[in-house]
Design goal:
This protein is α/β, with parallel strands linked by helices and about 475 residues long. It has four domains: about 110 residues, DnaA, N-terminal domain (GMP Synthetase, Chain A, domain 3), CATH 3.30.300; about 150 residues, Rossmann fold; about 50 residues; about 90 residues, DnaA protein, C-terminal DNA-binding domain (Chromosomal Replication Initiator Protein Dnaa, Chain: A, Orthogonal Bundle). About 60% of the residues lie in helices and about 10% in strands. The chain is built from 23 helices and eight strands. The chain has a five-stranded parallel β-sheet with strand order 5-6-7-4-8, sandwiched between helices. The chain has a three-stranded mixed β-sheet with strand order 1-2-3. α14 packs parallel to α16. The longest helix is centred in the first third of the chain and has 22 residues. The chain binds adenosine-5'-diphosphate and magnesium ion. The site of magnesium ion has 4 residues, from α9.
């Protein structure tokens, strides 16, 4: 913690010119993003940071040489033009390599992407806000770190999140309505809590009617401690209490931080009493957040509590479709299905996987195929590895061709069921270590020669019929350990 605070003192030395540059920079970033698209931006540009201006030249930083060279080649001119448009005195852009603490393996854009770190520009703006908690403008600075990618428009709604989404929309439309204050959003990692909070903030800021302050509970603590150090707690309190909407993300961070919790509790009460809106997120429901003071938990549960459930296959597909479309890269439906089957933990990981595929497609100019997917995502997929059973194979294959599971062992011989059955036998041979007689037994006590015939037949068909081959291949990859 001490380290963090020292970091803040350093930041506090940043001068006014820096914050002006940051404002220009966030505008440029927003424009770049609009021009090149979200995925492209996230892959190549998101990690860029602003350095000093000297005469007519501004320095920008990128974490790796690979990224620096790429950005220079692809966007160098555009960056120059955008800066010149913002600040006419700037005529040149110098790109340099500077390794931030979280910058990752050289050239592996997707690895970097999978870090949940805030975009550089936003982080800088946010840090700048800390340094001057004594000025009245901080309110607008508090609203600055909203990530423009996280809007209601880019949030894909499905069963698991529709309630939380509806509540968030409602709060954005009519903040401080009775029954919705506070709004408490909770759910597992990477399911969209932060996204929804930013969406509420962006919507309100766009409307321009209210002042919004969004910060993580961690940042809240740092600010609070920094205020104590600089003996400006009164100002800190006043600032927070003057916003219309206060959003605190990942409240579970305050567990065990009693003083900060206390401060938050008072801020919370003061705001709610004054008819302002509070939005809070956490990884658990208020009642399950043991370690938070009882009175705080009670108050948190007083408004609207909305949970975001784990994603379903359907939601994962919708999210992937939306993001693939936004990227402009053609990702075959089979690949999306494959990803949605394989990566079930959370949306962040799903998004990271897709971004990596897209980055590779862009970089090498090759189409996205199932095979390429498995190569590129080797490490992610390995994490989901497991042993596959004959029962699982039968179930997946039956689902795929829409036949009854019992038909895997039934005597029916019509092609509609016989073909899937043969595929299931073939896959059982390919993916398990069971012997032919064992496989035969699992398929309604069939003879091992039937299994041999099935394996041959499927291989023949795969050679003759590419669409069929692709189906089988998809199933294999889905099931494969
Ligand atoms: P949390 O705060 O719950 O840990 P985030 O809001 O940071 O999760 O979401 C992780 C990533 O997944 C973000 O990039 C976010 O945009 C994306 N994401 C999560 N849910 C959705 C959704 N329903 N639609 C689109 N993107 C989503
Ligand atoms: Mg979050």
């Amino acid at each position: 913690m001490t380290g963090g605070l020292e970091g803040y003192d350093e930041v506090a030395e940043a001068n006014a010119q820096k914050s002006i540059l940051d404002i220009h920079w966030s505008r440029i970033c927003a424009r770049l993003k609009a021009e090149v698209g979200e995925v492209e931006y996230n892959t190549w540009l998101r990690q860029m940071g602003v350095g000093p201006v000297e005469e007519d030249e501004i320095t920008l930083y990128l974490p790796t040489r690979f990224l620096r060279d790429w950005v220079r080649g692809q966007y160098g001119d555009r960056l120059g033009a955008l800066w010149h448009a913002e600040i006419p005195a700037i005529r040149r852009v110098e790109l340099q390599v500077a390794r931030g603490p979280s910058s990752s393996a050289e050239g592996d854009a997707a690895t970097a992407e999978s870090h949940p770190a805030a975009p550089v520009a936003a982080a800088v703006v946010e840090a700048t806000a800390v340094e001057e908690p004594r000025t009245a403008e901080v309110r607008s600075d508090l609203a600055a770190p909203l990530d423009p990618r996280f809007t209601f428009e880019t949030f894909v709604v499905g069963k698991p999140n529709e309630f939380a989404y509806a509540c968030a929309r409602r709060v954005a439309e009519r903040p401080s309505s009775p029954g919705f204050n506070p709004l408490f959003l909770y759910g597992g990692v990477g399911l969209g809590k932060t996204h929804l909070m930013h969406a509420i903030g962006s919507e309100l800021v766009r409307e321009g009617r209210v002042s919004v302050a969004y910060m993580s509970a961690e940042k809240f603590m740092y600010r609070f401690i920094a205020a104590i150090r600089s003996q400006s707690t009164m100002e800190f309190k006043e600032q927070l209490r003057s916003v219309d909407v206060l959003m605190i993300d990942d409240l579970q961070f305050l567990i065990g931080k009693d003083n900060t919790q206390e401060e938050f509790f008072h801020t919370f009460n003061a705001l709610v009493d004054a008819g302002r809106q509070i939005v809070v997120s956490a990884d658990k429901s208020p009642s399950d957040l043991s370690g938070l003071e009882d009175r705080l938990r009670t108050r948190l549960g007083c408004g609207m509590v909305a949970d975001i459930h784990a994603t379903t296959f359907e939601l994962r597909i919708s999210i992937l479709e939306a993001k693939a479309t936004a990227s402009g890269v053609d990702v075959p439906a089979k690949v999306l299905e494959f990803l949605a089957h394989k990566i079930t933990s959370n949306v962040r990981e799903l998004e990271g996987a897709l971004n990596r595929l897209i980055a590779h497609a862009n970089l090498f100019g090759r189409p996205v195929t199932l095979e390429a997917t498995q190569d590129v995502l080797h490490d992610i997929l390995k994490a989901n590895n497991r042993r596959v059973t004959i029962e699982e194979i039968q179930r997946k294959v039956a689902e795929h061709w829409n036949i009854r599971l019992t038909d895997m062992s039934s005597a029916r011989r019509s092609t509609v069921v016989a073909r899937p059955r043969q595929v299931a036998m073939y896959l059982s041979k390919q993916l398990t270590s069971r012997s032919l007689p064992e496989i035969g037994r699992k398929f309604g006590n069939r003879d091992h020669t039937t299994v041999i015939y099935a394996v041959r037949r499927v291989m023949e068909l795969m050679e003759q019929d590419p669409a069929f081959a692709e189906d089988v291949e998809l199933l294999r990859r889905m099931l494969e350990s």
